[in-house]
Amino acid sequence: MTIVNGVDFVSIPTTDLDRSVAFYGDTLELERSAYMPERNFAEFENGTVTFNIMDPVKMGVGEFARNANPVALNVADVAAARQALEAKGLTFFGDTFDTGVCHMAFFADPDGNALMLHHRYAPRG
């Protein structure tokens, strides 16, 4: 028997739901699947896991604390995706990183939650 079958969603905290909805929907162009401002959350789909954008203070589940470890967003081409996002005004932290098996480009959402563009181009060694 397996206890855990998968990941249904990842929570991403925000201090401003409308600003985050604009970022994840307009800037990152993710599909919005739920928007319930009266309940202080919205959800976005990325093809593998749902992003639950929520205001933890207004929901009464705790204080705001940004996610410091980046969520890796799979893209077909890191350089092209980075260029498209930079054209929208997004700032990246440093150059694109090449690990020898993948490319990564680091950035954050408006609340400082860490994100990265990621593309694996070779199998793990």
TL;DR?
This protein has 125 residues and is of the alpha/beta class. 20% of the residues lie in helices and 36% in strands.
Write a structural description.
The chain is of the alpha/beta class and 125 residues long. The protein has 2 domains: 7-62, 2,3-Dihydroxybiphenyl 1,2-Dioxygenase, domain 1 (Roll); 66-125, 2,3-Dihydroxybiphenyl 1,2-Dioxygenase, domain 1. Helix content is 20%, strand content 36%. It has 3 helices and 8 strands; from the N terminus they run βαβββαβαβββ. The chain has helices spanning 17-27, 56-59, 78-87, and strands at residues 9-13, 31-36, 41-45, 50-54, 71-74, 93-98, 102-108, 114-120. The strands form 2 sheets. The protein has a 4-stranded mixed sheet with strand order 1-4-3-2, covered by helices on one side. The protein has a 4-stranded mixed sheet with strand order 5-8-7-6, covered by helices on one side. The two termini are 30 Å apart.
Defining traits:
alpha/beta, about 35% strand, 2,3-Dihydroxybiphenyl 1,2-Dioxygenase, domain 1, about 120 residues, 4-stranded mixed beta sheet
Approximate helicity band: 10-25%
CA gyration radius, whole angstroms:
15 Å
At the first level of CATH, the class of the largest domain is Alpha Beta
Question: Low-confidence parts, pLDDT < 50 over ≥5 residues?
Answer: none
Note the run of SSEs as H and E: EHEEEHEHEEE
Mean pLDDT: 96
Number of DSSP helices? 3
CATH fourth-tier homologous superfamily of the largest domain: 2,3-Dihydroxybiphenyl 1,2-Dioxygenase, domain 1
Main beta sheet, described? 4 strands, mixed
The outline comes out as globular
CATH topology grouping of the largest domain: 2,3-Dihydroxybiphenyl 1,2-Dioxygenase, domain 1
As for the number of domains, it is 2
Secondary-structure-derived class:
alpha/beta
N/C terminus separation: 30 Å
Number of strands: 8
Strand residue content: 35-45%
Please give the CATH architecture of the largest domain.
Answer: Roll
